[in-house]
Structure formats: C-alpha cells, structure tokens
Amino acid sequence: MTEFSVPITVRGYETDSQGHLNQSVYLQYAEHARWCYLEHAGVRQADLLAKGVGPVVLETTIRYRRELRAGDEVTVSCRFVWGDGKTFGVEQTVVKADGTLAAEVTGVGGFLDLTARRLVEDAREPMRALAADPAALGL
Predict the structure, then answer these.
(1) What is the pTM of this model?
(2) Are 109 and 81 in contact (CB under 8 A)?
C-alpha cells in the first residue's frame, strides 16, 4: 500500500480553552491530507465532479494518543485500503516532529454517483479512470 503525508503546523486559533488542538480540527487535518494525496496522484476535485462522482465519508474514528498545542509541527499521513466493493478504507496518522504518535484516524469511504445518488459499484474505478498516477494511490 502506498502512503502519502503532508506537514502541518498547529495554529493557535485551532486550540480549545485548555490549549489543546480542538477535536474537530483533527478531521480537518485528515481531510486536507486526503485531498493533497488525491492531487498528488493527479485527481482534482473538478475532475471528480466532471466524471459525476464525489467522495463520501461513511465512517470515521479518531484515537487521540498525545496532546497537540499551538506551534507543534506534525505530519499527517494518508493511505487508502482498496477492496473489491463499493467502499474503501482510509488509514491516517498525525505524528509530531519528534516521532510521537498524536492521533490515528481511520475511516470508510466511497464514491457517490451524483446522478443516481448511490455508491458506485467499484470504488477503485473512479480513481483508476482519473488519476494520472494510479500507482501513487495503491492501484
């Protein structure tokens, strides 16, 4: 499986009243890494819309391991786990610059046919068709 990562610096306005990274921001970091990963493989949001499909998140779990504070430098990884059906897995980590695991984000996604309003039968198909480098996505 191919993994991709992107660096992020925790910004002060993303923290809560205790000075920790707000829980919702972990989801934003994960989403940012997923879109960067797709763009790295040559898939733009406009390409997906032109094909008539859109990615959907069906399930997300966050495991918080260590706190993050303003100024912390992290790397957010992303790896897609492809199967044969309508859904795919997403495995992500948020790792501090010193190598400390701060969070694990796992999920299940699919691609929605925007006309039929149903998941496409094979989640790999839109990525194979659109990616300039399908191997970068583990396909």
Answers:
(1) 0.93
(2) no
